[in-house]
Design brief:
heterodimer; A: alpha/beta; Rossmann fold; six-stranded mixed β-sheet; five-stranded antiparallel β-sheet; B: mainly alpha; MetI-like fold; 12 helices
């Protein structure tokens, strides 16, 4: 597993710079939480890590992101290849319509050309087991993915991302559309996954960040010169960030005075 | 408890609801009137032979027996059997002519049914690939300037009179080849079908949540892959509706067919020759001096409506079955 190193990463939306240059290292086999108020650019930075940011019309990013020895922003890199190594789970659980549970997981494998039935069966089962969903869906693999509950659909989304065995898993507020019980199961799942993956999670819930993450990055909005711009204000060990924040803005944010 | 102006609000609510119901009724009345009228008058022409027989000239002679000689098929003279031969035992007297004039309608519209299915079907074959791919382009690459131009052209095309499509194909194909043909009619219909298929495909693809595209893209799927394996299947039921609309539009068009397929009194399988079509039969029978054929015009219109309805139902059943399960 490789760490992810951001060097002067600067996302733009057209002419507008969204975040001040970001420098940080996301350690491997750890969960890094990114927290901060709305509009601070935390999701934008996350989406830069597998080059999903630039799929928005007009959006692009400057700087480098090193995945192991590879700069994913090198000019000869195909963004779609990066997304195989760096998987992503979104805020809204996505069960692909017209596909059953099995095919929802197999879609990424098929995309990579796996067509042997036995291989697919094994890989789908492995992914569903990793996502702690296998026992619940093993008898309904033929049912539409949309028939599952919201929490199950989110674990299905995680299984789909895990099936192609990424090195890094990005999660953009994966539990914000779920109830507390489903949230707990997702958090538990992430804890078990970190032995195999580098996990980066954007969350609105500071409690969630405190519960599951090893390190925390805090982003803030800087309203200056007429336009707001996001900024990384602090990154460190989660316990330290929450108990002894270095930056005063972090302290006022986590103590509830801002944001 | 304070009620404010509860009574007045309730009254306004009821008034508005009544007005909406009234307006809906007004909108539905023409539809029901047309269907009812076509059904009542058209059903007079409907018999078993109306679906199994082709054109028979008006006559007061007894129905031809089973051994009646087949009319020789000459694709270059599609109206050969229009010639009314004097029936045996008739003298051509005024009384005979009056009898023929008042004779009950004979023959059927099988040639028209087959012709409409062929012409509209081939038209759909032309229109489907172009329309669906154009729709995909407009939806998935919606921000490109060319897409705006195409979208505008599409709207203009779908609003232009159908006779324009007919004249265009008449000049470009019929005059060039010196031949009226079913395939020329299909081309004219395709021109009318393309904008419908394109715009419905686009709208239906736009309804597929962006999250699905993101999920596919997040797996490293290139745009074409996510479009064809994730987005398109999700939008399929809506696209099928658009295709059916296009088929119905094409099947019902008359003006472009007059200029391109000409019409025929016999069953033709050669798509490079003139062919019959239900709207053409409706048009010709309406103009006919024989009251019997006027009734058959209603019958042809009725069959056309039923045909479109039937196609609609069949396609819906087919897509419902195939959706959802791919394992």
């Amino acid at each position: 597993m490789s760490a992810v190193v951001l060097q002067e990463l600067t996302p733009f939306y057209g002419a507008r710079q969204a975040v001040k240059p970001v420098n940080m290292t996301l350690a491997s086999n750890q969960i890094t939480a990114i927290i901060g108020p709305s509009g601070c650019g935390k999701s934008t930075v996350l989406r830069c890590l597998n080059r999903m940011h630039e799929t928005i019309p007009g959006a692009y990013a400057k700087g480098t992101v090193m995945l192991g020895a590879q700069n994913i922003y090198a000019p000869d890199i195909d963004p779609t290849m990066i997304r195989i190594s760096v998987g992503m789970v979104f805020q809204q659980p996505v069960a692909l319509r017209t596909r059953n549970v099995y095919e929802n997981v197999a879609v990424g494998l098929r995309l990579q050309g796996m067509s042997n039935r036995a291989d697919l069966d094994a890989a789908v089962e492995r992914a569903l087991r990793s996502a702690v969903l296998w026992d619940e869906v093993k008898d309904v693999l033929n049912k539409p993915g949309t028939a599952l509950s919201g929490g199950q659909q989110q674990r299905l989304s995680i299984a789909r991302a895990l099936a192609i065995q990424p090195e890094v898993l990005l999660l953009d507020e994966p539990a914000s559309a779920l109830d507390p019980i489903a949230t707990a199961s997702i958090e538990e799942l992430l804890m078990t996954l970190k032995s195999r993956l580098t996990i980066v999670i954007v969350t609105h819930s500071m409690q969630q960040a405190a519960r599951i993450s090893d390190e925390t990055a805090v982003f803030m909005v800087d309203v200056g010169a007429g336009q707001s711009i996001g900024e990384l204000v602090e990154k460190g060990d989660t316990t330290q960030v929450f108990t002894q924040p270095v930056d005063p803005r972090t302290e006022s944010y986590i103590s509830g005075r801002v944001g | 408890m304070r009620t404010f102006n509860y009574r007045r609000r309730k009254l306004v609510d009821q008034l508005m609801r009544g007005l909406s119901a009234l307006a809906t009724g007004c909108a539905v009345i023409p539809l029901i009137a047309i269907i009812g009228y076509v059904l009542t008058i058209g059903s007079g022409a409907i018999s078993w032979s109306f679906f199994t027989d082709i054109y028979q000239p008006p006559s007061n002679a007894p129905e031809p027996t089973a051994e009646a000689p087949e009319v020789a098929y000459d694709p270059n003279d599609p109206f050969a059997n229009l010639t009314v031969e004097p029936e045996a035992g008739t003298t051509g007297s005024t009384e005979d002519v009056t009898n023929v004039y008042n004779a009950a309608p004979r023959g059927g519209v099988l040639h028209g049914i087959l012709g409409t299915l062929t012409i509209a079907g081939i038209g759909l074959l032309f229109a489907l690939p172009i329309g669906i791919f154009a729709g995909i382009y407009l939806s998935e690459f919606r921000n490109e300037r060319f897409a705006t131009v195409v979208r505008f052209c599409c709207d203009v095309l779908s609003g232009s009179p159908s006779i324009v499509a007919g004249v265009t194909i008449y000049v470009l194909v019929v005059l060039q080849t010196q031949q009226f043909s079913a395939v020329a009619g299909s081309m004219a219909l395709a021109i009318l079908m393309i904008p419908i298929v394109t715009r419905t495909t686009e709208e239906m693809l736009k309804l597929v949540p962006e999250t699905m595209r993101e999920a596919a893209r997040g797996l490293g799927a290139p745009t074409w892959y996510s479009t064809f394996t994730v987005v398109l299947p999700a939008a399929l039921p809506g696209i099928v509706t658009g295709v059916m609309l296009a088929f119905a539009r094409g099947a019902g068009e008359t003006a472009p067919l007059i200029l391109t397929v000409l019409g025929s009194n016999i069953i033709t399988t050669d798509i490079f020759k003139p062919m019959a079509a239900l709207p053409l039969l409706t048009y010709r029978y309406t103009e006919s001096p024989y009251p019997g054929e006027n009734t058959q015009a209603w019958g042809a219109a009725f069959v056309l409506m039923m045909l479109v309805l039937l196609m609609n139902i069949l396609v819906r059943i087919a897509t419902r079955k195939s959706g959802g399960n791919s394992r």
